[in-house]
Amino acid sequence: xxxxxxxxVEGESLYDISIGxxxxxxxxxxxxxxRGRHALIVSDSNVAPLYADRVEQTxxxxxxxxxxxxxxxxxxxxxxxxxxxxxxxDALARLGATRDAAVVALGGGVIGDLAGFxxxxxxxxxxVVQMPTTLLSMVDSSVGGKTGVDLPAGKNxxxxxHAPRAVIxxxxxxxxxxxxxxxxxxxxxxxxxxxxxxxFLGWLESHASALLAGDDMALTEAIARxxxxxxxxxxxxxxxxxxxxxxxxxxxxxxxxEAEQGYAGAGSDSxxxxxxxxVGMVLAARLSTALGRAPAADAxxxxxLLQRLxxxxxxxxxxxxxxxxxxxRLDKKAxxxxxxxxxxxxxxxxxxxxxxxxxxxLEVLSTG
Length: 368
Known about the structure:
Layout: E1 5-9, E2 15-20, H1 27-31, E3 38-44, H2 48-62, E4 67-73, H3 82-95, E5 102-107, H4 109-121, E6 127-132, H5 135-141, E7 146-151, E8 154-161, E9 166-170, H6 179-196, H7 198-206, H8 208-212, H9 216-236, H10 251-260, H11 273-290, H12 296-308, H13 321-330, E10 340-346, E11 349-354, H14 358-367
Parallel strand pairs: 2-9, 3-4, 3-5, 5-6, 6-9
Antiparallel strand pairs: 1-2, 7-8, 10-11
């Protein structure tokens, strides 16, 4: 296994996902994707002090004479709001960003989603270069062009599809990632094995200890394989009209938990996104079993792997099943004909299931 990999996303929008250590300081790589005279680095109060100076220097070296500004917002899912989005647009306005400008999204999923949405809306669409700094964002939110912000009614209810110009994932930043955040990212990695490849699920079971220890080669391989799965799906279904929905395995349950907890996330008693997805995947697997679609042994296998990776697998105490069900009805994945879930027939093979009865969902929530 190598510590440097490139995954090409094809389809309507062609771009490369570069994965490996030291990429934030690589001006040659970013020089190929910056086209104009302006760049806005969007980051948060946790990430900017660590990496913004380095990235700004890389941008200036790549494109001498470029005008660079920063928009740094408070960290946390609770900050992914329309008001912060408007502040980001104001920063682009102050920069005088033109149609060939670029937004550089330096941070986790919150920054990637919000900065990408701002890039999608500024002058009806400018470039965004995703520089994810968490494992979760490297394997999920930075790839595929889904951008947006949260509303009080639910997660990511306002947004747009806007493919990045490039994704640059510097795995060296994961060395300082708190263990909780590393585990949260591994939840999304497990998702790819759960819905696309039982062999990858087996690989994760064999390499769980190396991944938790932050082994460079294991992490690069896990990220590359996850991105390859996502790239293949996104290239065939860029706007989530079909099989791309499979990437939402566990997310209908997970988003409901996040919304009910107020998106408090890391640093609190509430679950962050990856943790909520981990619980959601277990619930989706149990719902699959309850509907007679999949063996209970597969649900137990999934739960065991997630627990080995330091992730929760049960609904947090105090959340009301009926309230969670109500949240699901507001989820953007819900349909007029009823709730839609991604369920599996067995580990490594999932499908979209529509019209799942509320009472079966409540049964799973009540025992989860």
